[in-house]
Amino acid sequence: MSKMDWNSLLHENLTAYNKENIKICDFKEPVILFFTSLSCVHCIDLLPNLNEISDLDTQAKIILFSDGEIEEIADMRQYFNWEFTVIPYDDAEKQNLFTDLKFPFMAKFDEHKNLITQGTIYNTDDYKAAMNHMEAMNFIERR
């Protein structure tokens, strides 16, 4: 499990690659955060899967954290036809904020920004498995 301070991240003023300022806690819909690095082979393998994951969870807002330069992020957005928000970060931020995450990492929050699942995922099948596991746990809790 990650020791990430999700509450701080959700309330932090963030700047997207296009200079748009956002606060994750301000979104009304569920949010899925992906954390990747361009120096991580598994992260690069995950990138083409993000549109498919977005299509599986159309009510959720997807936000990708990437250590790519602004030009690299713009190129990836164009190449993969991404319409979701991308937040750039640098090595210092990674060491300070994301030290406990094993990339590629995903965290999903409900509309109230309660963490509902998190973990390392490599592709769309891993995402589906995480969602199925989450649904199974919710079913057990309701019994």
Characterise this structure:
The chain is built from six helices and seven strands. It has a single domain, classed as 3-Layer(aba) Sandwich (Glutaredoxin). The chain has 143 residues and is an alpha/beta fold. The model has no long low-confidence stretch (mean pLDDT 89). The strands form two sheets. A five-stranded mixed sheet has the order 5-4-3-6-7, covered by helices on one side. Strands 1-2 form a two-stranded antiparallel ribbon. A hairpin with a 5-residue loop joins strand 6 and strand 7 (115-120). The longest helix has 19 residues, at 124-142.
User: What is the CATH H-level superfamily?
Assistant: Glutaredoxin
Note the total helix count. Answer: 6
What is the overall pLDDT average? 89
Rg is 15 Å
Question: Ranges with pLDDT <50 over ≥5 residues?
Answer: none
Envelope shape: globular
What order do the helices and strands come in, and which of them pair?
Layout: H1 6-11, E1 14-15, E2 21-22, E3 31-35, H2 41-46, H3 50-56, E4 61-66, H4 70-80, E5 85-88, H5 91-97, E6 105-109, E7 115-120, H6 124-142
Key words describing this protein structure:
39% helix; globular; 6 helices; 5-stranded mixed sheet; single chain; 143 residues; alpha/beta; two-stranded antiparallel ribbon
